[in-house]
Amino acid sequence: MQTVRLTADTQKDILNSLLKRSPNNYTEYESVVAGIIENVKTKGDQAVFEYTKQFDKWEINADSVRVTEAEIEEACSVIEEEFIEVMKRSAANIEEFHRKQLRNSWIDTRPDGTILGQRILPISVSGVYVPGGKAAYPSSVLMNVIPAKVAGVQKIIMTTPAGADGKVNPGTLVAARIAGVDEIYKVGGAQAIAAMAFGTESIPKVDKITGPGNIFVALAKKACFGYVSIDSIAGPSEILVLADETANPRYVAADLLSQAEHDELASAILITTDARLADAVNKEIDGFLQQLSRTGIIRKSLENYGYILLADSMDEAVLAANAIASEHLEILTRDPYAVMTKIQNAGAIFLGEYSSEPLGDYYAGPNHILPTNGTAKFFSPLNVDDFMKKTSIISYSREALERAHKDIELFAEKEGLTAHANSIRVRFLED
Known about the structure:
The protein is α/β, with parallel strands linked by helices. The strands form three sheets. It has a six-stranded parallel β-sheet, sandwiched between helices. The protein has a five-stranded parallel β-sheet with strand order 6-5-4-7-8, sandwiched between helices. A three-stranded antiparallel β-sheet has the order 2-3-14, with no helix packed on it.
């Protein structure tokens, strides 16, 4: 990894480099995605089946598009029981964490007859997209589906591409059963997003689409936003480690590599106040690269988006971390809790040397669907609220409105909306 002194200029250069990875910068694919969406919108199943044959290389029809109970049972039979039990324990942790996020509807009444409140209800149908092939991650199934189940969503459907043999990754199917998916369809890519956004003869329309995917999936979600709600337009994975001289360089190196292996656009950054730690981490990385798989991806990721930044103080390091607003932030310092109080922007924060980032990916319970590309400055992790909709409740008695009507009428008139003012005034005019 390249080691550079943290300055205003180096920070700006790194931020610009990281932002180039955003799906918003791949505009050359937008016209292709728009064509796919329009075709699915107008032709429904026919378009979905044609795209599946073109991109996934297998014949699909209305009878084979939906995963059967027999296929799920077959998947359960080929996945090791030990792994199934691990997924169940992970699911229990995720459910327990997200149940604490539930909020109730409320009503506030006042003596003058004013009634104000908020009604909180789950959306009706949620759709989750799950990548297939080498990028099949059962953990993402659990993270996307369980918050929706906790929220009380009535129906959850999942789309995921099948292989050329027409079969879905068995780990994905087992995770879907554990999480409580109601229907699974063998469709991938932008066509799957369009099918869920608008509905086809076989695939129902949903209210919200969540889940990761390639650039075509990301752009399709962006294009369909407004017809449906989406979680976010996710960019490549990223990790930032804040460390001082007390950090274990072997742990730091291992944690940086845990994200670099995702893909060549993944980012791994260490900000430290200790030059000796920086050197030691680089040596540990070289050692790990002799042992790990996916070294080609890791090397490319580190070459393009891997940095070790030397800061003059931890306060300077924190300022840079807040500017970068990383998806994952590890704090490996003498007093990580004190440093955490200064962090304003991060998707998830991991404190101490035994809280490695994969703990959040798989097991602890907080959601691993996190804001990327600096969007942690204004977005949150996927949570139960994402599957809820809130309705305001307003009821005034005559007494309550009489106290306020002149204020409302004046406000409306100042905005030039005389019909608004009249709607209030007419209630207090003599017949």
